[in-house]
Amino acid sequence: DGGITQSPKYLFRKEGQNVTLSCEQNLNHDAMYWYRQDPGQGLRLIYYSQIVNDFQKGDIAEGYSVSREKKESFPLTVTSAQKNPTAFYLCASSRGLAGVNTGELFFGEGSRLTVL
Amino acid sequence: AQSVAQPEDQVNVAEGNPLTVKCTYSVSGNPYLFWYVQYPNRGLQFLLKYITGDNLVKGSYGFEAEFNKSQTSFHLKKPSALVSDSALYFCAVRDSGRAAGNKLTFGGGTRVLVKP
Questions:
Q1: CB A60, CB A44: distance < 8 Å
Q2: Up-side HSE of residue B81: CA atoms within 13 Å toward CB?
Q3: pLDDT at B101 over 80
Q4: Confidence class of residue B104 from pLDDT cuts 50, 70 and 90?
Q5: Rg (CA), chain A
Q6: A21 phi and psi, to 5 degrees?
Q7: For residue A15, which phi and psi values (nearest 5 degrees)?
Q8: B50: nearest CA in chain A?
Q9: What share of chain B is helix, strand, coil (3-state, %, to 5)?
Q10: What is the distance in angstroms between the Cα of A22 and the nearest Cα belonging to chain B?
Q11: Positive or negative CA dihedral for B111, B43, A31, A115?
């Protein structure tokens, strides 16, 4: 079945450690996104990529990094520079590029990161 | 800039009664509007969208939403709520202009509790 797979579902990290969250999609979508969800704050965009080997910062990119070496994969690294990394992270994808796509996002099941 | 407001943190409704979840938006151009639902510790699921055409949009699970341009609103409705509709609901908007890319802006979410 087509969809978006995020792993791990739960992750614990010590302060000062980098951690990478995986996101893989087999929907043949061009665009991929990372959102952060905190209670009462909705979803905030971290990074997005509309095509392979290209990505842009979202609204809260500081302390995060991404890569888009393959169409199917968009991993997110939470670095030690992110001061408050405990959150629920959601990866999403959509068809097409700006002006072509009408914006429906398909979401993975999320990864919950807890900093100890 | 684009923004979304969901004025109610929580909506309580008895099973079988009508359900309404409010959403207002702000964009510089014409809006593309979306509703998503999230169950605990899961990703978001798409419910419905307004791109153009009829102001009343029908979606999944018996939900519908009405686009009102003069009031810049896109309220989600269901004529008869079920206990299984209890979840977190997000409204999202995107400016239809190409410069907006495919970036959705989400509201803070409204928790719906349907009591038997």
A1: yes
A2: 21
A3: no
A4: confident
A5: 13
A6: -100, 135
A7: -60, 140
A8: A102
A9: 10, 50, 40
A10: 15
A11: positive
DSSP letter, residue A69? S
Structure tokens given for A57:
């910062």
Hey, are the CB atoms on B104 and A105 less than 8 Å from each other? yes
Backbone angles phi, psi at B104, to 5 degrees: -90, 140
CB contact under 8 A, B32 and A103: yes
For chain A, what percentages of helix, strand and coil (3-state, to nearest 5) are there? 0, 50, 50
- The two tokens of residue A79 are 């670095």
**Portion 18-77 of A in contact with B at CB < 8 A:** 31, 35, 40-45, 48, 50, 56, 58
Does pLDDT of B106 surpass 70? yes
Burial class (CB within 10 angstroms; exposed 0-12, middle 13-18, buried 19+) of A93: buried
**Residue stretches of chain A with pLDDT short of 70:** 1, 96-103
Laid out side by side, the sheet with A19-25 consists of A4-7, A19-25, A76-78, A64-66
Q: Does B82 touch chain A (CB under 8 A)?
A: no
Find chain B residues with C-beta within 8 A of A106's C-beta.
46
> Which of B 41-80 lie inside 8 A of A, CB atoms?
41-46, 49, 51
pLDDT in tens, B39-74: 988 889 999 999 888 999 999 999 999 999 999 999
Per the CB < 8 A criterion, the answer to whether A15 and A80 are in contact is yes
Place of tokens 């151009």: B29
Strand, coil or helix: B84: helix
CA dist B35 → A39, A98, B8, B98 (Å): 18, 20, 15, 21
